[in-house]
Amino acid sequence: MQKIKEKGCREAAEFAAALGISFLALGLLRMLWRDVGLKLLLEYGAVSAGFAGVAALVLIWNKGGRTVDLSFLFTGAWFLFFTGERLISGTEIEWYLVPYWVNILLVAGICLLIYSICGSVRTALWGTDALFVFFMISNAFLKQARGHGLDVIDVYSVGTAMKVAGNYRFRITRVMMVGIGINLMMIRLLCRWHRKVAAERKCLGKGWICRLSCFVFPLFLMWSIPFSSFWSSRNYVASYSSDRNGMLFNLLLEVPDVIFMPPKGYSPEAAEALLSGYEKEAAGKEVTEYPNIIVIMNESLADFSVFRELETDVPVLPFLSTLEENTVKGYSVSSIYGGNTATSEYEFLTGDSNILYHTMPYSTMIQREEKVMGLPAQLRSAGYRTIAVHPYSNSAYRRSIVYPSLGFEEMYFQEDLKGLCSVRNGLYASDESNYGEILRLLKEKGPGERVFLFDVTMQNHAPYQDIEKTVRFLGADGYDEVEQYLTLANESDLAFSEFLQELEQYGESVIVLMFGDHQPSFETEFDRYLFGKTKEEMTSEERMQRYVVPFYLWANFDIEEKDGIWTSMNYLSLFVLEEAGIPLTAYQCYLKELQGEYPVISCSGIIDSQGNRYPQNEKESLIPEYLQLIYYHMCEESGSGQRLFGLGETTGNGE
Q1: Relative orientation angle of helices 586-597 and 268-276, to the nearest 10 degrees
Q2: How high is the pLDDT of residue 531?
């Protein structure tokens, strides 16, 4: 027994020395480059010393050895969490908050699962380490690319992500390198330490009851998080970013969003009865004929004047900021930030807010043979020729499958549009050439034919690199990405002004709606410039502002000018239909009434008619009927769908 204690003391001393080395490495980073905050340094020293101390005491004094393996697994889980989440991924959860310790438990749970199968602490630690570090590096790169980390819905858009990933240059920071180094050193030492004592201990893995417990406990833990009301009742909800919850905890909280469980109290009969009450309200303006409709979802178009006026050497959006004649404009609150463009598409085209599931509808909801009654199908039944245009790959977000399901008759992708050219060294198509293709399609249509054309641009897509800058940011130095984005936005403004000039001379009536799909993601320091604080320090109201994008509705005929409107993506189509004089469906009549009470409904929050803001997790108490209708529309098959969500037999040109 004395020999075991002596060996335990020696190994504890060796491990303490490794802790000291890693602590010095972090301290060196802080002194030379200030990449590590003092709070993080103190946290690492205090908590890691505590974990290592407990492990050492277990090894020295535990006579039966039953807790030896557990001590190694939980100590390893702590180091994996710290080096992965805190250093590699850059997540800043305070150590005294519940998510901090839940994430450590989840990492330990993965260790226990592997351990229960193989019975080896070393295999469990190295296996968990390989998985965790891979996902932490992926999480860090996603945060660089789009401003938030890994989400469950990313599983459905891996193909699209791989297509654009080659356009990015990812940065491996000094902190990431130190984190990987500390990670490998500590796991190696833990395994070495365990190997020396395991032969002389009766370890946990020898009994089948203990092995079974190690298998069942983590499964129970992982099941209880997404399906227990405990977390939601305490306002722990998926934040669409792992920054507040940690990656593993956040992913589990998102699981219900991809299972599509019906909302509380759901009844298809009640949903259908609710909509049936709005059937008689459908009415449109008195018009001689419906106008052509062009909708442009402009990639990453943002107007930062909603936060504060940017100091630039030239105006960024000179045309759009002064557009007033025959124009309705304002701001729309998106459900996404920095990526997942197709979510905004779905919300606009169907009227279904993504607030119910936080999912990727194009990937999870619409399958090959399914038909979804939305704006394209509605306008098609009203006599429109429906066209979708996207100057990029036809496989991105499964658009080639989804667009026909939504009611588009024709689709044109990058390979179909021969007049495209790029302003970004062949990376993405320019707005100017994209609009040129729209004008070509308009000119080629038959006389008297009415067209609904939905276009998704690509010019302003990240990454913002290797772009010749024509706009300089004067607010501060070092915002190279911001300047490159502002250059692209300035070119978008010019291209749109030339596009509208062409349509002013067009011989038929045209309505154009242009809106941004989401804000671009930049260096984290830009948040401090806009708000005077970091993302982690923002209030919920300030976080919602990161989802605000502009919209502009213009017509080449007389319409009433409006400005300063606040809305969300699910309502935008109502503005188009109202100006075009097209009768609303029963569902759209419901949305019109809901808009009067809650003009903004998105994953980033809810705003009522009095300007009060609510977090999205209060949706069940604020908009329970809307949630029921979203589920009915998305998930139920009903013969009433054509009548309640479409126009049925209505045809013609408004005569």
Answers
A1: 90
A2: 75
Using CB atoms within 10 A of its CB, is residue 474 exposed (0-12), middle (13-18) or buried (19+)? Answer: exposed
Q: What digits encode the pLDDT tens for the residues 408-424?
A: 999 999 888 888 888 77
Tell me which residue range forms the domain holding 431.
291-645
34: left (phi over 0), alpha (psi -120 to 50) or beta: left
The half-sphere exposure of 424 on its side-chain side, counting CA atoms within 13 A, is 23
Six-digit token string for 203? 């370890």
Q: Report the distance separating Cα 349 and Cα 452, nearest Å.
A: 12
The CATH number linked to 518 is 3.40.720.10
pLDDT in tens, 101-120: 888 888 988 888 888 888 78
pLDDT at 329 exceeding the cut of 70 = yes
- Is residue 233 located within the same domain as residue 296? no
- Cα separation of 332 and 335, whole Å? 10
Q: What is the largest CA-CA distance in the chain?
A: 99
What distance in Å separates the CA atoms of residue 1 and residue 299, rounded to the nearest whole number? 69
Q: Is residue 380 part of a domain?
A: yes
| CA–CA distance, 342 with 148 (Å, rounded to integer) | 17
Distance of CA 200 to the CA centre of its chain: 51
Note the pTM of the prediction, 2 decimals: 0.77
- Looking at the fold, whether 515 and 579 belong to one and the same domain comes out as yes
Same domain, 139 and 11: yes
Residue 637 lies in a domain: yes
Helix (H) or strand (E) holding 122: helix 121-146
Question: Is 40 within the bounds of a domain?
Answer: yes
One domain, residues 306 and 207 = no
Burial class of residue 460 in the structure, from the number of CB atoms within 10 Å of its CB (0-12 exposed, 13-18 middle, 19+ buried) = buried
Ordered alpha helix ranges (H), 323-415: 342-350, 361-364, 375-381, 399-406
Tell me the three state secondary structure of residue 453.
strand
Number of domains in the chain: 2
CB distance 93 to 231 below 8 Å: no
Domain stops at, among 258, 278, 305? 258
356 closest CA partner among 269, 260, 275:
260
Q: Measure CA 277 to chain center.
A: 35
DSSP 461-526: PSP--S------B-S-S--HHHHHHHHHHHHHHHHHHHHHHHHHT-SS-EEEEEEESS-----THH
Sheet containing 548-555, strands listed edge to edge, beginning at the edge strand earlier in sequence: 410-412, 385-389, 451-456, 292-298, 510-516, 548-555, 327-333, 562-568
What is the model's pLDDT at position 285? 55
- Mean pLDDT check: name the lowest of 74-88, 490-504, 629-643: 629-643
For residue 165, what pLDDT is reported? 54
Give the per-residue pLDDT at 198. Answer: 58
SS3 per-residue string spanning 48-94: HHHHHHHHHHHHHHCCCCCCHHHHHHHHHHHHHHHHHHHHHCCCCCC
Structural domain contains residue 653: no
